Each structure stands twice: as C-alpha cells, then as structure tokens.
Predict the structure.
Amino acid sequence: MTTDYIVGIDLGTTNSLVAYMQGDSPVVIPGEDGLNLVPSVVALDQKNQIVVGNAARRYLIETPERAVYSVKRLMGRGFEDVREELKLFPFQLADDLQTGEVLRIKIGDRTYTPPEISAFVLRQLKRNAERFFGAPVNHAVITVPAYFNDAQRQATKDAGRIAGLNVLRLVNEPTAASLAYGLDKRKHGMVVVYDLGGGTFDISILKLHDGIFEVISTNGDTHLGGDDIDNLLIAIALDDIRGDLGLDLSHHGEAVARIRNAVIEAKIALSSQPTAKLDVDLPGGKRYQREISLEVFEQMIQPIIDRTVGPCKQALKDAGLKPEQIDEVVLVGGSTRIPKVRRLVQDLFQRVPHTDLNPDEVVALGAAVQANILGGGSEITKEMLLLDVTPLSLGIEVAGGVTDKIILRNSTIPASATQYYTTQVDGQTNVAIHVLQGERELARDCRSLARFDLKGVPPMPAGLPRIEVKFLIDANGILRVSAREQRSGKEAEIDVQPTYGLTDEQVENMLLESFDYAEEDFRQRQVIEARREADTILTALAKAKNNHAWHELTNDERRKVEELEKTLVRVKDGDDYHAIRTAIDELNQATMRLAELMMDTAVSTALKGKAMDDTDMDEGPQAGHPVAKADFE
Ligand code: ADP
Ligand code: MG
C-alpha cells in the first residue's frame, strides 16, 4: 500500500480531469462543485486572483480580456507555428514579445507562458485530488495527443513541474483510452481510437503487440469538434431570431453567450432524447423558443461529422489497413456521445465501438491505470509499459570520451535514427562502438549498454571512411545498433535491451543527475572537443612538414608556426578551454598559407594523373571511437 498517490491526468483542450485507481478500477475525482470535468479555462478575477475551470467560464463572457482557453493549442509552439491559431482564437500575446522568445499570453495586465497557464489547470486538479484524499498528491501521469512533438511534450512536462507535480510519464491519449478498456490484455490486434472533442478531432490507429501499443498512424483536424456544432446551432438560432423577432443579436455578446449555453444544453439532451427545447430570454423582454427533433439535429450536423471521414480513411491508408482488419474501436471525446457519430464510426470501421466508459473521461481513466502500473503494478506490466517511450537518451561514445546521443529520451517507440561518423586516425581498421544510455555529456557518466567493433575497414586516411550508425528500437523495446562503413560495405551489429534492469527510480536519478551536472558536463565536453581538434591540427601539421610546401614558407613563417605549435602542445592537455581554443585559432591562422600551398600542390599532382592521396599510412589494426561527421555530401 502506497501512501504516495499517483494520479492520472487528462490535460485537455476543452476539459481536463484527474483520476486514480480505486481497487481494480479507475475513477474520476470530482471537484468541489461535484463535477468531474474541469474546463481548461483560466481567468483573473477582480482581485487579480487566478480562477480555474467552471468558475472561470463566466469571465470568458464578462471580461474576455481576462480569461483564456484552448491553451493546449499553444503548448511548446513558437510564434511562427501559432500564426493560424491566433486568427481563430482570441489569444492576446504579450506586447513586448521578441521573435524567438517563448510565447507569453496576456490575461488582464499579466502575461504567462502556455505551460504556466496549463499549470494553473493542473494545480486545480492537484488540489481537487488532495481534497479528495486528504493527503498531498505529488506524482502524476499526464496524457498528450499522439501527434505531440518533443517540444509540445516537454512543455506539458514543464507545466506539471510548475504545478508542483512530478510527471512520471507522458502517455499518448489513444494509448490511455485503450488501457482504460483493458485492451492491452488481448495482447495483439489493431485498435482505432476515434476522438472527437470540443475543438479537435484525432484519429489514431494503434497496433497492439505483446501488450504494447504502438501508434502506427494518426490523422485528424485540429479545428473540428463540438464547438463547430455549437457555432452552427447558434448561427441558426440567430437567423431564426432575426427572421421571427426582427432582432440582430449577432454582436450582442451576452445574448450570444446565453444562446450558446442553451444550444449546448439542447445538443447534450439530444444525445439521449428524441427532442430538445431551446428557451432563451433575450434583451428587451423578448424570448426565443424552438423545439428541435433529433432528426433535424442530425441533418444539421451531418456536414460537420462527415468531415471526420476523410482523416479516418487517410489514417487507414497510412497504416496500410482495410477496415475489416480493425479489431477494436474506442470512442473518445464528449462529442462521440452523439448517436449519429457512433453510427458513422461503426459504419466506417465495421465494428461496434466500445462505449461503456464515458468518452470524455476515458483518457483520464487510462492515465490512472498507467499511474497505478508505475506506482506498483506487477513487474511485467511495469516493464512493458516503460517501453512506450524511451526513458533515457541512447547514443554512442565518440572520440574523446564524449556521448553522442542518437535517439533522444522520450521518443515514442518504435524509433529509429541514423548518424554518420568517420575515423580519427589514418589507417584505422577497427571502429569501437560503445552503446550508451543516459543524459550526461561524457561517456563515463552514462550507463554502458554494449560494446562491439566494426572490423575490417580498409585502411584509409582519417576522415575518409563514412560510417553509418543506425539505432532501431522495435516495439518490444529491443535496441538494435548497426554500424556500416559505406565505402567498403563492412558492417556489424548488436542487440540490446535498454530498459533491462533499470527501475523507474534509477531512470529518474539519471535524469536528475544530468540536470545537476549540466554545466560542468558542458565545460568538460568543450575541453575534450577542443583537445581533439588540437590533436587533429597537430597531426596534420606534422604531416605537412614532409610536404615541400613547408619549405616554400619563409623562415619567419616557419618559426611563427613552430612557436604556436609548441604553445598548443603545452596548453592542450590542461583544463583551460579558452587557452586551448585561442592556441588552435592562432595556429590555424598561421598555417593558412601553408594549407593554400599544399592545396595547389595536391591539385597540380592530381592534374598530372597521380593519386591525390600519397600519404604513407600506418597499416594494421587500429581501434578508436568514431568521430562525429555531419558534413558528408
Ligand atoms: P477535449 O478533449 O477537447 O478537452 P471533451 O472530450 O471534454 O473535450 O469534449 C468536449 C465536447 O464534448 C464539447 O463540445 C461538449 O459540448 C461535447 N459534449 C459533451 N457531452 C456531450 C453530449 N452528451 N452530447 C454531445 N456533445 C457532448
Ligand atoms: Mg480530449
């Protein structure tokens, strides 16, 4: 029994919720008002206090400049990315915003970044949970859309941290919804998650293998959802009012707000009743009344819900699947309560969708399931779900004992990435690949996962081999590292299980360490890299002295170069980065003419039909770590 509660949180565009595991089943924790959903609205009241949720909603109408909503759309995004959003949403950006700066949104006369605003929502959920448990809540699993990129995920984590929550894991929303239905228990199959919320539509196709969910395709429309239905009904009502009562209320904020509440109520009623009544008091003692039948409602919304068909078909196509290959369909989002939407989904995927759980709660419920697994579920499931994302970065050791990350932490798996390297020494025939896990800059501070050699590389001058190192993590979390020298076709590979034997706590510690040592690591890495550069120059210079170009320099030039060479040799093994840097730059400067002369010689030799490369090579097996090389081709 743990006294440390871990909650699951759905941080939604329209609504947010917090849930936890009560015995064997996940349960949503209500707020003080008894409601499960906390609208993702943040406002500043008259006393400049932050208000969140239902209480903040009225500010959207009364003092819209003091309230914000849909902030999820801005998470982890730059000014350029949100240009389109700004046209559709009344976000007020800070006046003094500089380009390249993190977005800041105005609420009243204050400005907040999107993670700070989301943190207000998270803090409210945390408070609701603490009130419910009568105990502090410090750990959470938070869900994010499957398509969220690294920056958006990081921004969500930041929001959690700002709210005082230790975010143990970010889980993809469709994965959470599938977990809530216990679909992981079926081990294998194709799952479609159809999520029609307030303002967004997401379709995800997940492949379940060995109980692990892999997102194989996503599609959707970032501006499609219940809001469109509301706006359509409002427009129809305003038309009616104009026709029947001769009133144009389209610019009457308060009347429109009242109509909005009425149509939403009617829409919700129509999900369980054959008719609904609209009854709104209007300015000037007038009144708007209308009855809407389900049939008429369904005709009205047809064009809106039809807009979900294209993305569904595309997602199937991208996944290379036919509807009959789908095993399970999960409905997510409040708007999937609409019977017509359910029928559409059933027709599209030829499966009866899961509807037992509340579609606007199912993501939070799944987050609670995940939280429970992290908190003390069985080791097996714990290990399996750990693999949903890579908890730590993976990479290799490059020359100088530096870590070169290839797959960054928090990448959803399966994941793959390729980097190119070359050799450090002339005639190097062995390249040592040392596979590392962790965030630290130096190899010795990371966890060593495996070592292998790429052997039999034909002797070539340093820098000429083109070594492709490929990392591939399959859905089972197995990492395959392969190295291939592309000019000769020599290759070698190894399989490792990166999470094997690592507890969550160890992962956390490794992350924390990397933050603690970030500055020191950076300094050391700089020194090591400068040292390596110094070695390269010194070797090149030693070689150049055998070239007749060296003798074409004046005595003064040669003396100057040798003097600077001595300086570099003297400082390069010290810890003073600036001294090494300066010595390198000065030597580079002084050998400029030498390099030009050598270039001329090389070119004229080549023109005479001789091989350009006539340096005598140290033959024989030589091993060394690869050198990063990004500038091939
Ligand atoms: P999000 O994931 O975008 O935060 P939700 O999943 O909470 O949003 O969905 C909110 C949307 O669902 C709103 O447009 C709301 O009006 C709509 N909704 C909620 N309940 C119903 C219902 N019974 N019938 C139709 N629409 C509903
Ligand atoms: Mg949602």
